[in-house]
Design a protein that fits this description.
Blueprint lengths: L1 H31 L4 H13 L1 H12 L3 H26 L7 H24 L2 E2 L1 H24 L6 H4 L7 H32 L4 H26 L3 H26 L2 E2 L5 E2 L2 E2 H24 L4 H20 L1
Antiparallel strand pairs: 1-2, 3-4
Helix pairs in contact: 1-2, 1-8, 1-9, 2-10, 3-4, 3-9, 3-10, 4-9, 4-10, 4-11, 4-12, 5-6, 5-10, 5-11, 6-10, 8-9, 9-10, 11-12
Length: 323
């Protein structure tokens, strides 16, 4: 147990440093190509920070651990929105949101969530065809988003470009790739040893997947969000969170399902009904709506949203452990 705690702490340090490098590299790329930070956050940064989810869910699916593969994706979406985004919003309200750039990943997320939920509520079985369709959805999103980013490059005056010395492209790429690698290793240390600690406390597998593993694999998003906030790049953080939620449904789940199709775990029931259908999926929808709808309507995120989201998250965690 002592060794697990030590490795857990090492993983946390790696996440913090990796997140710092990753954000610097992503912002550098965004500035060099005059791209909106929110689009970089919803694409490049989101892929990097969902690496732990992809690795954990794919390995779990290959090993036949459907509870972990399924719970990690849904749990990470809830954690990203109700904890990570909530902390960012509660700490500082975001002003002047780029509604056009913000709208695309939101629309794609809800389209994917409706499709994912429809499968869950109708058959409860995620076949390999469903996995392939989810991966195809991911490809379509990336193509459309990249084209949108190219068509909406930010044009700046030449004198503005000289205000801040830009790093060479190769340095930004080294920071981006190196940061992502350190994040992935650090997250694995946290997940593996966090699971050992949790198992030592007698926590059920389904709860571990929706809480400990979901939180562990979402730590890159948390570190990226906090680092982005401290560096004054809140749009990058929010774009990352929305993009990461979408990737959890279409990329992470798509990979896991394609590797080894599975059914929705039914270990936990509420009044005879599958707890995931009654609580997990509705909470995922509710938290995303609470975060995104006011942002689209007012182009602002306010502190009260973050506080309510945090209350929802801690209530959800309490439900997982005590009900």
């Amino acid at each position: 147990m002592i060794q697990a705690v030590l490795l857990f702490c090492i993983g946390l340090v790696m996440l913090i440093k990796g997140g710092d490098w990753f954000v610097d590299g992503a912002v550098g790329v965004a500035h060099r190509y005059k791209l909106p930070e929110i689009l970089i956050g919803a694409t490049i940064v989101s892929i990097g920070t969902t690496i732990p989810e992809v690795m954990v869910s794919s390995i779990a699916a290959a090993a036949g651990q459907s509870q972990t593969a399924y719970g990690n994706a849904i749990g990470s979406c809830i954690c990203n929105t109700a904890l990570i985004a909530a902390v960012t919003i509660a700490a500082k309200s975001v002003q002047d949101i780029d509604a056009k750039a913000f709208r695309t990943p939101i629309i794609f997320f809800f389209l994917a969530a409706v499709f994912y939920s429809a499968v869950a509520y109708t058959s409860g079985v995620f076949s390999r065809l469903i996995g392939i369709l989810l991966l195809a959805f991911f490809v379509v999103y990336m193509v459309i988003t990249v084209r949108q980013a190219i068509n909406n490059r930010v044009v700046t005056d030449s004198e503005d470009a000289g205000e801040e010395e830009e790093k060479p492209l190769w340095k930004n790429l080294v920071l981006l790739i190196g940061g992502a690698a350190i994040i992935a290793v650090g997250a694995n240390l946290l997940v593996d040893n966090g699971q050992i600690i949790a198992m030592g406390l007698g926590v059920p597998e389904s709860v571990i997947a929706l809480t400990f593993i979901a939180l562990g694999t979402s730590l890159p998003e948390l570190v990226t969000a906090i680092t982005s906030l401290l560096k004054g790049h809140s749009s990058l953080s929010l774009g990352n969170i929305i993009g990461a939620n979408l990737f959890n449904l279409v990329f992470v789940s798509g990979m896991a399902i394609t590797i080894n199709p599975f059914s929705i775990p039914s270990e936990k029931l509420i009044a005879g009904q599958n707890a995931s259908l009654v609580v997990d999926i509705p909470v995922m929808f509710a938290t995303m709506i609470l975060m995104t709808l006011p942002a689209l309507l007012t182009k602002k995120l306010r502190r009260w949203q973050g506080i309510i989201l945090l209350l929802i998250y801690f209530s959800y965690i309490a439900f997982q452990f005590f009900f």
